Amino acid sequence: MSLVKIKTNPEDLIFTFRLDDVRFSGFCSKAGRDSTGKCLECAAGWFGSNCDGLCNRNCLLDTLDGSNYGNLCNRSTGICLLGCKGQWYGNTCDMRCSSACDNGQDPGTGIIDKSCERNSGKCLYGCLRGYYGDNCLDRCSEGCKNELVADIGLIKRCNIETGECRNGCEPGWCGVRCDDKCGEHCRITFDTYYQKDIRKCECNNTKKCSFGCDSGWYGNNCECTQNGLNCDAKGCDKVTRRCIDCSDGFYGNECNNNCPSHCQSGKCKRDSGNCFSCFDGWYGSRCNCKGHCDLSQGPLGCSANGLCHDCELGWYGTDCLFRCKTSCGDWGCMRDTGICNKCADGFYGGDCSIKCPANCDVSGCRQNDGVCNQCKQGFFGDMCTDICPVHCDNSGCLKNSGFCIACNEGWTGNKCECLGNCSTEGCNIATGICLRCQSGLYGDHCNRNCPLHCSRGECRRYDGKCHSCDTGWFGELCDCKGHCKDETCDINGICSECKEGWYLEKCVTPCPTHCNASGCNRFDGFCRGCLPGWYGSKCECSGHCSTFGCDTTTGNCSACDNGWFGSKCVDKCPVNCLGIQCRRVDGFCSACELGWFGNECEHKCPENCLETMCNRNNGFCKTCKNGWFGYRCDQRCRGNCDVQGCDKITGLCLTCVTGWYGSDCNSQCPPHCDIQGCLKESGHCINCKNGWFGEQCKCSGWCDKTGCDSNGRCHVCKTGWFGNNCTRQCSDTCMASCQRVMGTCLGCQQGWYGDECKLRCPTNCQENTCDQMSGHCSKCESGWYGPRCKCIGYCSNGCDIGTGVCFNCSNGYHGETCLEKCPTNCDETGCSRGDGMCKSCVSGWYGNRCDCTGHCGPSRCNSEGQCYICKPGWHGTQCVTKCPKNCDSNGCKKGDGTCYICKSGWYGNKCRCSGHCKQNDNCDSSGICSDCANGWFGTSCTQKCHENCNVSSCARKTGFCEKCKLGWYGSNCSTSCNHNCDRSICEKNTGRCEHCRIGWFGKNCNKNCPSNCEELRCRRLNGTCLYCKSGWTGAQCQCRGQCADTGCDDTTGRCFNCMDGLYGTNCDIKCANHCQTCKRIDGICSKCETGRYGVNCELHCSAYCHDKVCEKTTGRCRACVVGRYGDFCNETCSEMCLNSSCDRLSGKCFSCIPGKYGDFCDNFCGDYCLNRTCSQSSGFCHACESGTYGETCNTTCSINCLTRDCLRNGTCAHGCRNGWQGRECVSRSTQLDEGSFRMLWLILGAVGALCLFMFTCAIILLLRRKHKNENQKEVPLTTNTPRSNLGTVMHSKDHNEPANNLTALLGGVAKPEDKYIEE
């Protein structure tokens, strides 16, 4: 596939991509593309949905797929993932750090550059000298005084954060940053000290020109173009040429209007002419009223002679000079009498002087009689003196009745007096226990739900068991969906175990027809056992068929089960086939079990095969055990091979025992190798013994690769070693190696010097480097001097090299080391080196250290230079700090600079703010407040918030209230809440009531609660009553009596149906005892309580009825307890029934105990049934004991079966003994194999020898006839015709004596004590 190389930028890497990347558009990583050709991932350096956007070259480099490197960025946004290269910042690293950022070294990479913070661009290592601010974008003002900096010269220095000049201002400049220049029209004067023309001014709020104005200019600041304007000391604005502020007594744009005559000090606001404050006895914004007049109707509010038209809210009297009582609250009082218009919350009475009862809530009480509008939580009654019932929850109780609004968990009833969910019959007052539970609940406290599938949701109160189940559900708790064993199941209704004969999850499917009595598997329905003659997973075939079954016509299996072959799968596979699997046609094994080989896996693998694994066809081992080799692993490895042995084919060692090497491990390791020996291939030592070195450990030192001579001496030492034998190590501070003889370093590491580089360079050497021989510094760190950089401080003409002490200090410094600055106000002659006292002061400063300011008051300063009193306009300990510029002519306090009085239009302790700011001086440099004080808004915080704003706070831009006072809503809180809102509280934006007043409901509280609700209280959303008045029921209390869930007629209130246990026209009469439901007209019982029956439920159901449930009229049990049957469950099941369980009607056992069968389990299973178990219906054994077969296992397997085991039809399970054949091994075999022929010749030889022996014995008998009685009798040999071809036998009294082969050949009658010989 073609490749393309792309070079993104001259300094970037070259990227390589497949040509199809270009053809499909976009540059993909190794992950490739999806079916549409779109990249799954972008290659490093690219982004975008099509991977066709190039990441910014300033993103850090890395790789995504291990091959191509690139500038990594986010695929969607292009934002750099790993950060930016040095000098760049921003999400995509497209902005350069300020050129004024100082250099610094990255601790991770060691790179030195101008780095800045990734998001903000803030310089990480500070600013270059002469710059300030986070991003170092601001230059120190040109008005800052110059500072002498070593190695640089004169520069302007300022605080790196604030820009405040470090050494004060040049003449003609003002402000902490020296950026406020004196007016350009101030008269120029020649300064003899600075030797130049300067425009000087006073650096205070007036900036008054020190020597007057240029011709044609006026005012203190020389910015006015007219003379005689009514400006204050600040003069005119540079742009408009109008007064910055008016002088006292004037206001207006041109300062040509007189302030009202009753303004205090004659001062008023420039824009409106309103007074800042009035002379005593005068009120109003213009101080023209003689009382607290209502000014809301107009700015005057009073007549020409000062009498109020109306009083301001909260004042009364003819002149509105008397304040209303505090108990009138915000409602005010009558002007003539002072009587409250309305009492404040919490007071009542004619003069609102009486406090409402203590337990009234915040809505207070009625003004005329003090009855609480609402009670505090936990109280009720007119005066809220009664305590709510103890089990009401936190929402309390109804004010009038004391009924709980809601109960604590577990309690019910009007007053939460019942412990549990009681029916309408209530509970025992003394104990709180329910008389009856609500429908669907049970338990002592009626707090547990009946099982979900109980019929009609009803269950027994004491244990929660269902009376009956919904259709399709079973069990005591109706939680089972099928025929579960013991009627138990999980929470989903799934049986934990099925009853016998059923399967699947829900136990609703019967087992296959031909399964035997042991049933089938729960999950797949496979039979646990088949009826005789049937096979397969579901017993559908007459052979050992697999799960694919068989042909229903021929009975031939589609496939055989493991271990069987043949068309009907009735022949067993050889025993050593792997997994007992063989070819279906001829029974050849598909593969052998471990350790066997051959077609039928009849041969054992050689014993030295590893894990007895060998080739199936020839028996060759796959791998040998350690120590053996050869195809059959029958040859031993050579003696010096270690435990890993040798190559299986060649016999060559894989590894050698320690001390030997070579392909056959017959060579010894060099003598000076340590105990680990040497490498097998080369014989090189792994490690040497102490004092020996080199690959063969024959060198007596650390030699380099040229080795050593025959005496062990190195030709050349290895780097880092020296000495005659290269056994001494060079100093660890040598740069590389050292001279062989003396060990002198050929170079030192940084920071060290001397022959062996053991001496440290002087402390102040630049970059910690010095001359190796002398230790003299190459260069010194800034501020240090001399060969060893021992000279410190600002010296003017050098220092003593030994001590570092300057001969003379540079101008402006003093002290032994010339590191201490002279006092700030010393003039150019400096100060004394010893004590730092100024030789003379700059103009306006006094004292030994020139620290007594020229702005002291008449009493000047003390001996420490501190002023006793400052001149007006100055403050601070030394009176060198100007008062805030907006203080009026009275100045400020010496200690903290707080203005005595602010100029018109300025506010705060230091008159910095042009409006009513929060926290006094919290405003910016232009006077704009950061936040407005409560009750004010607007850009300058000079507009008042609406009177209905809560806590008088509102949005600064719009004046919209943040919160409203009680009873108001809207952006300006100018609209009153709906009168149906509880306590007049509504949502600020929509006016929607937070809660409705009693008697109202609905989204807007505009609907009446139903008339029969107790205290007219109902739920807001749907209007349903919390409680009903006596005699009424239903969600809206529209029903008369105890109606069922079907409700009642909305017009008449008559119930459609009564609640269980009640009858009558109004459903208010109780049914008979033990009657659960009765007929509405006559009260005749229609359903009894559990355990009862009869016309009036007066009779008890049988104790043996399941759950004591029986039919109402007859008393017949619906079901019996275990072990009982019959209509009334008064008959006992047979004790032979398994678990004493039998059929309800007939008493027949469902299952029998082991060893029994029959309807009533009164018959015994056959003696040879395996585990004495058999079919309950037929008595046929499920399986036979070893050696027997047949339906009842009463027939013995053929004696010629190889293992005496046979199948249920008598077929020998593992084949016949030698010499026998047929299904039951009862026919003799007609062929003799080679072994039999060999045996025959042996037998014939034995017979010949026996004849010779008998002949000899006959002669001996003749000779010893006289001793006949003393001789032992010979046991006679008998020969009979074999019976039933069962085999050949030999008789012997000693059963341990070997059988005689001749007798065995001739045959004999089989007897119990006979031994059988295989032929």
TrEMBL record:
<feature type="domain" description="EGF-like">
    <location>
        <begin position="852"/>
        <end position="880"/>
    </location>
</feature>
<feature type="domain" description="EGF-like">
    <location>
        <begin position="668"/>
        <end position="698"/>
    </location>
</feature>
<feature type="domain" description="EGF-like">
    <location>
        <begin position="1070"/>
        <end position="1098"/>
    </location>
</feature>
<feature type="domain" description="EGF-like">
    <location>
        <begin position="729"/>
        <end position="758"/>
    </location>
</feature>
<keyword id="KW-1133">Transmembrane helix</keyword>
<feature type="domain" description="EGF-like">
    <location>
        <begin position="480"/>
        <end position="508"/>
    </location>
</feature>
<feature type="domain" description="EGF-like">
    <location>
        <begin position="310"/>
        <end position="353"/>
    </location>
</feature>
<dbReference type="InterPro" id="IPR042635">
    <property type="entry name" value="MEGF10/SREC1/2-like"/>
</dbReference>
<feature type="domain" description="EGF-like">
    <location>
        <begin position="760"/>
        <end position="790"/>
    </location>
</feature>
<feature type="domain" description="EGF-like">
    <location>
        <begin position="1100"/>
        <end position="1130"/>
    </location>
</feature>
<feature type="domain" description="EGF-like">
    <location>
        <begin position="139"/>
        <end position="179"/>
    </location>
</feature>
<keyword id="KW-0812">Transmembrane</keyword>
<protein>
    <recommendedName>
        <fullName>EGF-like domain-containing protein</fullName>
    </recommendedName>
</protein>
<feature type="domain" description="EGF-like">
    <location>
        <begin position="882"/>
        <end position="912"/>
    </location>
</feature>
<feature type="domain" description="EGF-like">
    <location>
        <begin position="604"/>
        <end position="634"/>
    </location>
</feature>
<feature type="domain" description="EGF-like">
    <location>
        <begin position="976"/>
        <end position="1006"/>
    </location>
</feature>
<feature type="domain" description="EGF-like">
    <location>
        <begin position="510"/>
        <end position="540"/>
    </location>
</feature>
<feature type="domain" description="EGF-like">
    <location>
        <begin position="1132"/>
        <end position="1162"/>
    </location>
</feature>
<feature type="domain" description="EGF-like">
    <location>
        <begin position="96"/>
        <end position="137"/>
    </location>
</feature>
<feature type="domain" description="EGF-like">
    <location>
        <begin position="944"/>
        <end position="974"/>
    </location>
</feature>
<feature type="domain" description="EGF-like">
    <location>
        <begin position="1196"/>
        <end position="1226"/>
    </location>
</feature>
<feature type="domain" description="EGF-like">
    <location>
        <begin position="223"/>
        <end position="256"/>
    </location>
</feature>
<feature type="domain" description="EGF-like">
    <location>
        <begin position="387"/>
        <end position="417"/>
    </location>
</feature>
<keyword id="KW-0245">EGF-like domain</keyword>
<feature type="domain" description="EGF-like">
    <location>
        <begin position="355"/>
        <end position="385"/>
    </location>
</feature>
<feature type="transmembrane region" description="Helical">
    <location>
        <begin position="1239"/>
        <end position="1263"/>
    </location>
</feature>
<feature type="domain" description="EGF-like">
    <location>
        <begin position="636"/>
        <end position="666"/>
    </location>
</feature>
<keyword id="KW-0472">Membrane</keyword>
<feature type="domain" description="EGF-like">
    <location>
        <begin position="1008"/>
        <end position="1038"/>
    </location>
</feature>
<feature type="domain" description="EGF-like">
    <location>
        <begin position="702"/>
        <end position="727"/>
    </location>
</feature>
<feature type="domain" description="EGF-like">
    <location>
        <begin position="821"/>
        <end position="851"/>
    </location>
</feature>
<feature type="domain" description="EGF-like">
    <location>
        <begin position="913"/>
        <end position="942"/>
    </location>
</feature>
<feature type="domain" description="EGF-like">
    <location>
        <begin position="258"/>
        <end position="288"/>
    </location>
</feature>
<feature type="domain" description="EGF-like">
    <location>
        <begin position="1164"/>
        <end position="1194"/>
    </location>
</feature>
<feature type="domain" description="EGF-like">
    <location>
        <begin position="572"/>
        <end position="602"/>
    </location>
</feature>
<dbReference type="InterPro" id="IPR000742">
    <property type="entry name" value="EGF"/>
</dbReference>
<feature type="domain" description="EGF-like">
    <location>
        <begin position="449"/>
        <end position="479"/>
    </location>
</feature>
